[in-house]
Design brief:
Elements (H helix, E strand, L loop, with lengths): L1 H32 L3 E7 L2 E23 L4 E6 L6 E2 L4 E6 L1 H36 L5 H33 L2 E3 L4 E6 L6 E2 L4 E17 L1 H8 L4 E6 L2 E15 L2 E11 L10 E18 L4 E3 L2 E8 L2 E7 L2 E2 L4 E5 L8 E5 L10 E3 L2
Parallel strand pairs: 1-20
Antiparallel strand pairs: 1-19, 2-9, 2-13, 3-5, 3-8, 4-7, 5-6, 7-9, 9-12, 10-11, 10-13, 11-12, 13-18, 14-15, 15-16, 15-19, 17-18
Amino acid sequence: MNKSFFRFFVIFALCIIGAFYYQFGDRSSIQAEFPSKRVVVIDRNVSNFTKKLSMLAKLYSLKSINVLAEVDGTIETRNYEIGQFVKKDDVVLKMHDTRKLLELKETEDLLASHKARLDDAARNYKNALALYGKEIISSNELNTKKNLFHQTKGEHDAQEARYKRVLWEFHNLNVVAPFDGYINKFYQDIGQKVSRGKRLFEFIDNSYLIGKSTLSSDNAKKIQGSTKQIEIKKGKEVFVSEIIGISRKIDKDNVSYVLEFKIDNSKENFIPGEVIEIQIQIQQFENYIAIPSKAILNEGDKSFIFVEVNGAAKKINVSPIPLNNNESIVKAETVPELTRIIIEGYSGLEDGAKVEVIE
């Protein structure tokens, strides 16, 4: 009986020891099967950054005028079409008016007649001066010649002024470009009769363009305190523009601001009416580190990141500043040297946890 009890006791003890060993031996094997958490890191690169404000803007011609008819007439020909470039003083439209042609011929003949009479009166007055100097004629006769000369000259000058006016009207039947630019719109058709003051065509100068963008009051304040330099990206090229000013726009109960800037378009990179994206430098940061915004975690009202040092994760509190849609920056002094910033695999990490860096 005692032997049986002893055997039972030995077997029971061995089972307990075996179970204990199995339990702790199994834990060891589990730990071996699940290695350290794998993470992706970036180096701690300290640099200087510029924060930019992005917005859309619409472009307008710097110079845009409506050319008016200076005289009455009927449109005869059109030398250019919409969108074509025209040099200054080139004829865009030709008009005709038979009455002006006849009036010009009439005033031209009358002027020639008055010129002949003036020449005759001038000769007589000159001869009278010579005769008066020799005491051949009296002062009364001299004054008569003098008065006749001045009267004839007055009539000639009046006729000359009328001729110049008619000639000006005749020349203005040809409507010319006021400066180098483009035809943007015609208001009248060929064969249409127009009166003085009527709009003929819209003429624009695209060598410089004006950009306009609506701003909130906050963005207006940011831009006013900036370098006031605008960057415009188009394809692979970057264009730089200077701000003209910011004006206030009141629409009923709403107050907004309008940013205006000027673009050199001498190479015709842009067209009026085009909508472009612009960027304005509003703030500069020195000695900061850029981190993907997704790698910045929040705990209440505090933000933190994980860094890797000697194969372990370390939790670091930071005060991030959004740089753009994808990145934020933190002060370099808040991230210890000789560490790398964990940007992937941070989910579920704890301070001090072992990590394996994926190179």
